[in-house]
Amino acid sequence: MFMKFPHLKIGQLVPRYPIIQGGMALRVSTAPLAAAVANAGGIGVIGATGMTVDELRNEIKAARRLTRGIIGINVMFAVRQFATLVQGAIEEKIDLVFTGAGFSRDIFKWGKASGVPVVSIVSSPKLAAIAEKLGASAVVAEGNEAGGHLGTNRSIEEILPEITSRVKIPVIAAGGVVDGSGIAKMIRLGASGVQMATRFVLSVECAVSDAFKQMYVKACADDVVLIKSPVGMPGRALRNIFADKISGGCAPKPEFCDACLKECSREYCIIQALRNSQVGRVDEGVVFCGKNVHRIKDILPVQKIFDNLVKEFDEEPD
Ligand SMILES: Cc1cc2nc3c(=O)[nH]c(=O)nc-3n(C[C@H](O)[C@H](O)[C@H](O)COP(=O)(O)O)c2cc1C
After folding, report:
1. Count of alpha carbons within 13 Å of 131, Cβ hemisphere only?
2. Is the dihedral of CA 267, 271, 276, 280 positive or negative?
3. In what order do the strands lie in the sheet with 224-228?
4. Ligand 1 pocket residue status of 286, Cβ below 6 Å
5. Which H/E stretch holds residue 171?
6. Could you tell me the pTM of the whole model?
7. pLDDT in tens, 190-231
8. SS3 content of the chain, % helix, strand, coil (to 5)
9. Residue 14 C-alpha to ligand 1 middle, in angstroms?
10. Cβ of residue 23 lying under 6 Å from some atom of ligand 1
11. Which of 106, 153, 234, 265 has the most CB atoms at less than 10 Å from its CB?
12. Where are the domains positioned within the chain?
Protein backbone atom coordinates (compact mmCIF):
# COMPACT_ATOMS: atom_id res chain seq x y z
CA MET A 1 0.00 0.00 0.00
CA PHE A 2 1.18 3.49 -0.83
CA MET A 3 0.43 6.74 0.94
CA LYS A 4 -2.48 8.96 0.02
CA PHE A 5 -2.63 12.71 0.53
CA PRO A 6 -5.00 13.68 3.34
CA HIS A 7 -8.03 15.80 2.57
CA LEU A 8 -7.14 19.27 3.89
CA LYS A 9 -10.17 21.45 4.52
CA ILE A 10 -9.68 24.99 5.83
CA GLY A 11 -13.09 26.60 6.26
CA GLN A 12 -14.70 25.74 2.92
CA LEU A 13 -11.40 25.65 1.04
CA VAL A 14 -10.09 22.32 -0.20
CA PRO A 15 -6.87 22.45 -2.24
CA ARG A 16 -6.13 19.57 -4.63
CA TYR A 17 -2.91 18.89 -2.67
CA PRO A 18 -2.45 19.69 1.05
CA ILE A 19 0.66 21.71 0.28
CA ILE A 20 0.92 25.34 1.33
CA GLN A 21 3.67 27.66 0.16
CA GLY A 22 4.75 29.54 3.27
CA GLY A 23 4.39 33.32 3.13
CA MET A 24 7.73 35.10 2.89
CA ALA A 25 8.09 38.75 3.84
CA LEU A 26 9.71 41.61 1.94
CA ARG A 27 8.62 40.47 -1.51
CA VAL A 28 10.11 36.97 -1.42
CA SER A 29 6.64 35.45 -2.03
CA THR A 30 4.70 37.66 -4.40
CA ALA A 31 1.95 37.13 -6.99
CA PRO A 32 3.88 35.01 -9.57
CA LEU A 33 5.01 32.44 -6.97
CA ALA A 34 1.71 32.32 -5.09
CA ALA A 35 -0.28 32.00 -8.34
CA ALA A 36 1.99 29.25 -9.69
CA VAL A 37 1.53 27.25 -6.47
CA ALA A 38 -2.25 27.76 -6.63
CA ASN A 39 -2.27 26.68 -10.29
CA ALA A 40 -0.33 23.54 -9.38
CA GLY A 41 -3.03 22.60 -6.85
CA GLY A 42 -1.57 23.96 -3.60
CA ILE A 43 -2.27 27.12 -1.61
CA GLY A 44 -0.18 30.11 -2.70
CA VAL A 45 0.63 32.75 -0.10
CA ILE A 46 1.71 36.37 -0.58
CA GLY A 47 4.04 37.65 2.14
CA ALA A 48 2.39 40.90 3.21
CA THR A 49 4.89 41.97 5.87
CA GLY A 50 6.84 44.96 4.59
CA MET A 51 4.23 45.95 1.99
CA THR A 52 2.00 49.00 2.13
CA VAL A 53 -1.70 48.20 1.93
CA ASP A 54 -1.82 49.53 -1.67
CA GLU A 55 1.09 47.31 -2.65
CA LEU A 56 -0.68 44.34 -1.08
CA ARG A 57 -3.96 45.10 -2.87
CA ASN A 58 -2.08 45.28 -6.19
CA GLU A 59 -0.28 42.02 -5.45
CA ILE A 60 -3.56 40.24 -4.72
CA LYS A 61 -5.08 41.63 -7.94
CA ALA A 62 -1.99 40.49 -9.88
CA ALA A 63 -2.27 36.99 -8.38
CA ARG A 64 -5.97 36.83 -9.29
CA ARG A 65 -5.12 37.65 -12.92
CA LEU A 66 -2.74 34.65 -12.94
CA THR A 67 -4.86 32.03 -11.18
CA ARG A 68 -8.31 30.92 -10.13
CA GLY A 69 -6.74 28.79 -7.39
CA ILE A 70 -6.48 29.43 -3.66
CA ILE A 71 -4.50 32.50 -2.60
CA GLY A 72 -3.77 33.66 0.95
CA ILE A 73 -1.70 36.31 2.63
CA ASN A 74 0.72 35.98 5.52
CA VAL A 75 1.25 38.87 7.89
CA MET A 76 3.31 39.09 11.04
CA PHE A 77 1.36 40.24 14.05
CA ALA A 78 4.47 42.17 15.09
CA VAL A 79 4.01 44.79 12.34
CA ARG A 80 2.26 48.02 13.20
CA GLN A 81 0.27 47.84 9.92
CA PHE A 82 -1.16 44.42 10.86
CA ALA A 83 -4.83 45.46 11.05
CA THR A 84 -4.69 47.64 7.92
CA LEU A 85 -3.06 44.88 5.87
CA VAL A 86 -5.49 42.19 7.00
CA GLN A 87 -8.53 44.40 6.41
CA GLY A 88 -7.21 45.49 2.99
CA ALA A 89 -6.73 41.84 1.99
CA ILE A 90 -10.21 40.94 3.20
CA GLU A 91 -11.66 43.78 1.10
CA GLU A 92 -9.77 42.34 -1.89
CA LYS A 93 -11.56 39.06 -1.16
CA ILE A 94 -8.48 37.08 -0.19
CA ASP A 95 -9.27 33.38 0.34
CA LEU A 96 -7.52 33.03 3.71
CA VAL A 97 -5.16 34.80 6.11
CA PHE A 98 -2.11 33.33 7.89
CA THR A 99 -0.77 35.18 10.91
CA GLY A 100 2.78 34.65 12.07
CA ALA A 101 4.51 35.57 15.32
CA GLY A 102 1.34 35.93 17.39
CA PHE A 103 -2.28 37.00 16.95
CA SER A 104 -4.98 39.01 18.64
CA ARG A 105 -8.65 38.29 19.27
CA ASP A 106 -9.62 40.90 16.66
CA ILE A 107 -8.35 39.00 13.67
CA PHE A 108 -10.71 36.09 14.32
CA LYS A 109 -13.64 38.54 14.56
CA TRP A 110 -12.71 40.11 11.20
CA GLY A 111 -12.32 36.65 9.67
CA LYS A 112 -15.68 35.49 11.01
CA ALA A 113 -17.49 38.64 9.89
CA SER A 114 -16.16 38.32 6.34
CA GLY A 115 -16.15 34.52 6.04
CA VAL A 116 -12.37 34.47 5.53
CA PRO A 117 -10.61 31.59 7.35
CA VAL A 118 -7.77 32.61 9.66
CA VAL A 119 -4.85 30.25 10.17
CA SER A 120 -2.46 30.87 13.07
CA ILE A 121 1.17 29.87 12.94
CA VAL A 122 2.07 28.38 16.31
CA SER A 123 4.95 26.50 17.89
CA SER A 124 3.36 25.07 21.04
CA PRO A 125 0.23 23.08 21.97
CA LYS A 126 -0.80 25.89 24.33
CA LEU A 127 -0.88 28.52 21.58
CA ALA A 128 -2.58 26.06 19.20
CA ALA A 129 -5.36 25.53 21.76
CA ILE A 130 -5.79 29.29 22.27
CA ALA A 131 -5.97 29.86 18.50
CA GLU A 132 -8.60 27.12 18.15
CA LYS A 133 -10.66 28.55 21.00
CA LEU A 134 -10.56 32.04 19.50
CA GLY A 135 -11.73 30.77 16.10
CA ALA A 136 -8.76 29.69 13.97
CA SER A 137 -9.80 27.44 11.08
CA ALA A 138 -6.46 25.60 11.18
CA VAL A 139 -3.01 26.02 12.66
CA VAL A 140 0.42 25.77 11.11
CA ALA A 141 2.70 23.98 13.59
CA GLU A 142 6.12 25.45 12.91
CA GLY A 143 9.21 23.69 14.24
CA ASN A 144 12.68 25.02 14.74
CA GLU A 145 13.82 23.75 11.31
CA ALA A 146 11.83 26.54 9.62
CA GLY A 147 13.29 29.61 7.92
CA GLY A 148 12.68 33.13 9.21
CA HIS A 149 11.66 34.07 12.74
CA LEU A 150 11.32 31.11 15.08
CA GLY A 151 8.89 30.62 17.96
CA THR A 152 10.58 27.53 19.44
CA ASN A 153 13.86 25.68 19.78
CA ARG A 154 12.04 22.34 19.50
CA SER A 155 11.86 20.24 16.34
CA ILE A 156 8.71 19.77 14.28
CA GLU A 157 8.79 16.05 15.08
CA GLU A 158 8.57 16.86 18.80
CA ILE A 159 5.86 19.53 18.67
CA LEU A 160 3.62 18.12 15.92
CA PRO A 161 2.16 15.11 17.83
CA GLU A 162 1.65 17.32 20.90
CA ILE A 163 -0.28 19.85 18.82
CA THR A 164 -2.38 17.33 16.87
CA SER A 165 -3.46 15.68 20.12
CA ARG A 166 -4.46 19.06 21.60
CA VAL A 167 -6.71 20.50 18.83
CA LYS A 168 -9.48 19.28 16.53
CA ILE A 169 -8.85 21.77 13.70
CA PRO A 170 -6.43 20.74 10.91
CA VAL A 171 -2.74 20.96 11.77
CA ILE A 172 -0.32 21.84 8.98
CA ALA A 173 3.34 20.96 9.62
CA ALA A 174 6.14 23.39 8.75
CA GLY A 175 9.90 23.36 9.02
CA GLY A 176 12.50 21.49 7.04
CA VAL A 177 10.20 19.75 4.52
CA VAL A 178 11.88 19.82 1.12
CA ASP A 179 10.64 16.68 -0.66
CA GLY A 180 7.85 14.10 -0.93
CA SER A 181 9.33 11.82 1.71
CA GLY A 182 9.44 14.79 4.11
CA ILE A 183 5.74 15.36 3.41
CA ALA A 184 5.00 11.66 4.08
CA LYS A 185 6.86 11.85 7.39
CA MET A 186 4.68 14.76 8.54
CA ILE A 187 1.47 13.02 7.44
CA ARG A 188 2.51 9.90 9.37
CA LEU A 189 2.99 12.09 12.45
CA GLY A 190 -0.61 13.28 12.12
CA ALA A 191 -0.42 16.44 10.01
CA SER A 192 -3.28 17.26 7.63
CA GLY A 193 -0.90 19.06 5.29
CA VAL A 194 2.47 20.76 5.06
CA GLN A 195 3.73 24.29 4.67
CA MET A 196 6.98 24.63 2.72
CA ALA A 197 8.94 27.77 1.99
CA THR A 198 12.64 27.13 1.32
CA ARG A 199 11.91 24.68 -1.53
CA PHE A 200 9.79 27.35 -3.24
CA VAL A 201 12.50 30.03 -2.99
CA LEU A 202 14.46 27.88 -5.43
CA SER A 203 11.75 28.17 -8.08
CA VAL A 204 11.77 30.08 -11.34
CA GLU A 205 8.74 32.09 -10.18
CA CYS A 206 10.17 33.27 -6.82
CA ALA A 207 10.86 37.02 -6.94
CA VAL A 208 14.19 37.12 -5.08
CA SER A 209 17.43 38.17 -6.77
CA ASP A 210 19.63 35.58 -8.42
CA ALA A 211 22.33 36.34 -5.81
CA PHE A 212 19.86 35.21 -3.09
CA LYS A 213 19.02 31.99 -4.96
CA GLN A 214 22.72 31.27 -5.60
CA MET A 215 23.45 31.51 -1.87
CA TYR A 216 20.80 28.83 -1.34
CA VAL A 217 22.15 26.60 -4.13
CA LYS A 218 25.71 26.80 -2.77
CA ALA A 219 24.78 26.34 0.91
CA CYS A 220 26.11 23.45 2.99
CA ALA A 221 24.51 22.28 6.23
CA ASP A 222 27.07 24.23 8.30
CA ASP A 223 26.17 27.52 6.61
CA VAL A 224 22.73 27.62 8.25
CA VAL A 225 22.82 29.65 11.47
CA LEU A 226 20.55 31.34 13.99
CA ILE A 227 20.70 35.12 14.07
CA LYS A 228 19.44 37.62 16.61
CA SER A 229 16.58 39.66 15.20
CA PRO A 230 15.53 43.06 16.61
CA VAL A 231 11.97 41.67 16.66
CA GLY A 232 13.01 39.74 19.78
CA MET A 233 12.93 36.26 18.25
CA PRO A 234 15.81 34.30 16.75
CA GLY A 235 15.82 33.87 12.99
CA ARG A 236 17.16 31.04 10.84
CA ALA A 237 19.35 32.33 8.03
CA LEU A 238 22.46 31.68 5.97
CA ARG A 239 25.78 32.72 7.41
CA ASN A 240 27.21 35.67 5.50
CA ILE A 241 29.07 38.94 6.20
CA PHE A 242 25.93 40.52 7.63
CA ALA A 243 25.13 37.56 9.91
CA ASP A 244 28.70 37.75 11.25
CA LYS A 245 28.22 41.47 11.94
CA ILE A 246 25.02 40.70 13.86
CA SER A 247 26.73 38.06 16.01
CA GLY A 248 29.67 40.44 16.56
CA GLY A 249 27.28 43.18 17.68
CA CYS A 250 28.36 45.50 14.86
CA ALA A 251 25.46 45.38 12.37
CA PRO A 252 24.74 48.93 11.13
CA LYS A 253 22.22 50.90 13.21
CA PRO A 254 19.04 51.89 11.30
CA GLU A 255 19.62 54.98 9.13
CA PHE A 256 15.93 55.69 9.01
CA CYS A 257 13.12 54.32 11.18
CA ASP A 258 9.37 54.63 10.72
CA ALA A 259 8.62 52.39 13.72
CA CYS A 260 7.12 49.74 11.43
CA LEU A 261 7.29 47.07 14.15
CA LYS A 262 5.27 47.19 17.36
CA GLU A 263 8.43 46.26 19.26
CA CYS A 264 11.98 46.51 17.98
CA SER A 265 15.36 46.69 19.70
CA ARG A 266 16.64 48.93 16.83
CA GLU A 267 19.96 47.09 16.97
CA TYR A 268 19.76 47.03 13.17
CA CYS A 269 16.84 47.28 10.74
CA ILE A 270 15.56 43.78 9.92
CA ILE A 271 13.25 45.18 7.22
CA GLN A 272 16.13 46.92 5.41
CA ALA A 273 18.33 43.84 5.85
CA LEU A 274 15.68 41.58 4.27
CA ARG A 275 15.05 44.12 1.50
CA ASN A 276 18.80 44.26 0.72
CA SER A 277 19.06 40.51 0.22
CA GLN A 278 15.82 40.38 -1.80
CA VAL A 279 17.25 42.85 -4.34
CA GLY A 280 20.67 41.17 -4.44
CA ARG A 281 22.81 43.07 -1.92
CA VAL A 282 23.25 39.84 0.02
CA ASP A 283 26.41 40.97 1.85
CA GLU A 284 24.37 43.76 3.44
CA GLY A 285 21.35 41.64 4.18
CA VAL A 286 19.74 38.75 6.00
CA VAL A 287 19.07 35.65 3.90
CA PHE A 288 16.41 33.68 5.76
CA CYS A 289 16.26 29.95 4.94
CA GLY A 290 15.12 26.64 6.40
CA LYS A 291 17.49 24.12 7.99
CA ASN A 292 17.41 21.74 5.01
CA VAL A 293 18.32 24.30 2.35
CA HIS A 294 21.50 22.35 1.55
CA ARG A 295 19.39 19.46 0.27
CA ILE A 296 18.01 21.49 -2.64
CA LYS A 297 20.32 22.08 -5.56
CA ASP A 298 18.03 22.95 -8.47
CA ILE A 299 15.96 26.00 -9.46
CA LEU A 300 12.78 24.59 -11.02
CA PRO A 301 9.41 25.86 -12.27
CA VAL A 302 6.78 25.48 -9.54
CA GLN A 303 4.81 22.94 -11.60
CA LYS A 304 7.90 20.72 -11.83
CA ILE A 305 8.48 21.06 -8.06
CA PHE A 306 4.89 19.88 -7.50
CA ASP A 307 5.27 17.00 -10.00
CA ASN A 308 8.37 15.83 -8.11
CA LEU A 309 6.73 16.20 -4.68
CA VAL A 310 3.66 14.23 -5.76
CA LYS A 311 5.75 11.49 -7.42
CA GLU A 312 8.05 11.14 -4.39
CA PHE A 313 5.07 11.10 -2.02
CA ASP A 314 3.21 8.50 -4.12
CA GLU A 315 6.22 6.19 -3.88
CA GLU A 316 6.24 6.28 -0.08
CA PRO A 317 5.03 3.09 1.67
CA ASP A 318 2.00 3.55 3.89
C1 LIG B 1 12.95 33.72 3.09
C2 LIG B 1 11.89 33.38 4.11
C3 LIG B 1 11.02 34.35 4.57
C4 LIG B 1 10.01 34.04 5.49
N5 LIG B 1 9.11 35.01 5.87
C6 LIG B 1 8.07 34.68 6.68
C7 LIG B 1 7.05 35.62 6.99
O8 LIG B 1 7.08 36.75 6.53
N9 LIG B 1 6.05 35.24 7.82
C10 LIG B 1 5.97 33.96 8.34
O11 LIG B 1 5.03 33.66 9.08
N12 LIG B 1 6.91 33.03 8.04
C13 LIG B 1 7.93 33.36 7.21
N14 LIG B 1 8.85 32.39 6.87
C15 LIG B 1 8.62 30.99 7.33
C16 LIG B 1 7.93 30.18 6.22
O17 LIG B 1 6.69 30.71 5.86
C18 LIG B 1 7.77 28.69 6.57
O19 LIG B 1 6.83 28.46 7.58
C20 LIG B 1 9.05 28.00 6.96
O21 LIG B 1 10.16 28.54 6.33
C22 LIG B 1 8.93 26.51 6.63
O23 LIG B 1 10.16 25.86 6.69
P24 LIG B 1 11.00 25.53 5.34
O25 LIG B 1 11.46 26.83 4.82
O26 LIG B 1 12.08 24.64 5.84
O27 LIG B 1 10.07 24.85 4.37
C28 LIG B 1 9.89 32.71 5.98
C29 LIG B 1 10.80 31.73 5.52
C30 LIG B 1 11.78 32.04 4.61
C31 LIG B 1 12.71 30.96 4.12
Report:
1. 31
2. positive
3. 148-149, 234-238, 224-228
4. no
5. strand 171-174
6. 0.97
7. 999 999 999 999 999 999 999 999 999 999 999 999 999 999
8. 40, 20, 40
9. 22
10. yes
11. 234
12. 19-207+297-314, 210-293
